[in-house]
Specification:
Layout (H helix, E strand, L loop, with lengths): L9 E7 L12 E7 L8 E10 L2 H5 L17 E11 L9 E7 L3 E4 L7 E3 L16 H13 L7 E4 L5 H12 L3 E6 L2 H9 L4 E4 L7 H8 L4 E5 L4 H7 L3 E9 L20 H4 L3 E4 L9 H13 L7 E5 L4 H9 L6 E5 L2
Helix pairs in contact: 2-3, 2-8
Amino acid sequence: MALPSSLPAFARHIILRRRPVGVPTQDCFALSQTPMPRPGQGQMLVRMLVGSVDPAIRGFLDDRPSYLPPVALGAPVNGMSLGQIVESHHPDWPVGDHVRVFATWSDHFVIGPDALGLERVTPAANVPLRSYMGALGPVGLTAWVGLFAVGEAKAGETVLVSAAAGATGSTVVQLAKAAGCRVVGIAGGAHKARVLHELGADAVVDYRALERDLGAALDAAAPEGFDVYFDNIGGPTLDAVLPRMRERGRIPLCGMIAQYNDADHPYGVQNLWKMVVKRLTMRGFLTYDYAERLGEAQAMLDRLHKAGRLRPLENVHHGFERLPEAFIALMQGTTTGKTLVEIA
């Protein structure tokens, strides 16, 4: 069967060349190509348009169990992708549809209707397609699920967000403000602190500029403590926050970026006994565990964005081959907002 005339003869992939030790480096990855894959009965061929670069990918690169199997050496790296169906053998997923799905770093890939996280995307007028991979997509859904479904944040409560200038954190800040919460963000650097104030944070703890320990800075920012801590970091930051939670506080665990680059030496949290003293709830979550609530979440994201109350915070790279570079910058902690790669 001949390829459709608009398709190239080969698909490109970013493969895992060697497993990283610490922060990934460029030589961990390589660009490869294979003959263009063809969809079988009931399958679709998707052309990647926007690649998502997320801290969770770092965990897939180690040869250890995670919530998904590790990437094999020589195999394409896993990641969320937003693309367009260019060939289809499934009546419910026609050519031309935009889809969001957990796939691989491949500029063309084949999926079935049961692919992880598969969703149809209908872009609104004047909204960049990439936003549906960020604040109006998985990032926004993760922020909403953690803050409301797990954290049960309510108007009048005080919410603390770590990695608050990152993709998920910056969205949580805005959602919490829209819900009537007082919001404190933790971030590193004057630029990130300034961005968070622009997004509506009531206070920002710049850990790079601390003249005293983190606990004292948190006390100054919220003397009465926190009702919800949206944790993207774990490690010593979680340790500092636990004694400062209010009774019956909630801690949604979204990520543990403090140890992603050194998973062999996890930090031992010392203040877990505060969970008992304060009757706290701490729960890890994955967004799609709450599939029945994602329609509600998406509606709120769209509504706030249309009203100008949700600003997608993005740093955008261009070109398929830039995926490793963008990921390395993310894991070095130099980025602000959601890291995305638009594919030419």
